[in-house]
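Incident log, support desk, overnight shift.

02:14 A customer reports that sequence design results differ from what the structure should imply. Their input is reproduced verbatim below. On-call engineer (initials T.W.) acknowledged and began investigating.
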């Protein structure tokens, strides 16, 4: 999940190929990768402009200026494109978290939570399609499952990081870490429910809630 920037920032494997979960065929050449990015960018613009329900493979292909047959070479259907968009966005979040954690001088449970959640907010501003698809949607079963798995990985890796860095006790339950991530996720849902810019008050309250909960496990 996280790239390694310092001894106390979680290490991770190399980033997956673009949209590797949703893709039926992975692009290997630069031209193919560029075409997949055009498909994802076109889908993102439609989602942000008109909502998830307005998304169709025909409209995506037309917006990306490619034959619809070319789209189907890479994606089975519109749901696969949605999953690929969420994967691209969550990868960017993981990278932002790692970058921001590496810059924190005074690490604590509180600064770990605040830095992580504020890193997500930065990416939401750059990737409003994620707000539409994940924070406002989740009607797609594949997207929902991908997001849940990402939350579980995030919880596991942040827990391991906190224990190794001496921020949390070794007996911090894995379930508690996962609950903290889910609480934060739900707070983001509420904060972005009606405004792509988010509700600052709800974001701040979410950070305070998760920090307060996890502070009970700090060393």
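02:41 Re-run completed on a clean worker. Output:
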């Amino acid at each position: 999940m996280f790239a390694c920037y310092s001894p106390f920032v979680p290490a991770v494997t190399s980033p997956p190929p673009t949209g590797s979960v949703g893709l039926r065929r992975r692009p290997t050449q630069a031209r193919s990768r560029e075409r997949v990015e055009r498909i994802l960018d076109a889908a993102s613009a439609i989602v942000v402009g008109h909502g998830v329900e307005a998304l169709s493979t025909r409209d995506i292909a037309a917006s990306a200026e490619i034959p619809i047959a070319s789209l189907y070479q890479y994606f089975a259907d519109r749901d696969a494109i949605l999953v690929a968009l969420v994967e691209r966005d969550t990868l960017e979040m993981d990278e932002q978290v790692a970058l921001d954690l590496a810059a924190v001088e005074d690490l604590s449970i509180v600064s770990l939570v605040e830095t992580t959640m504020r890193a997500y907010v930065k990416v939401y501003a750059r990737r409003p399609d994620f707000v539409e698809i994940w924070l406002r949607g989740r009607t797609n079963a594949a997207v929902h499952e991908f997001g849940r798995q990402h939350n579980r990985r995030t919880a596991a890796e942040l827990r391991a990081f906190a224990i190794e860095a001496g921020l949390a006790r070794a007996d911090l339950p894995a379930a508690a870490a996962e609950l903290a991530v889910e609480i934060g996720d739900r707070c983001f849902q509420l904060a972005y429910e009606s405004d792509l810019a988010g509700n600052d008050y709800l974001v701040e309250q979410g950070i305070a809630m998760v920090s307060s909960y996890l502070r009970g496990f700090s060393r």
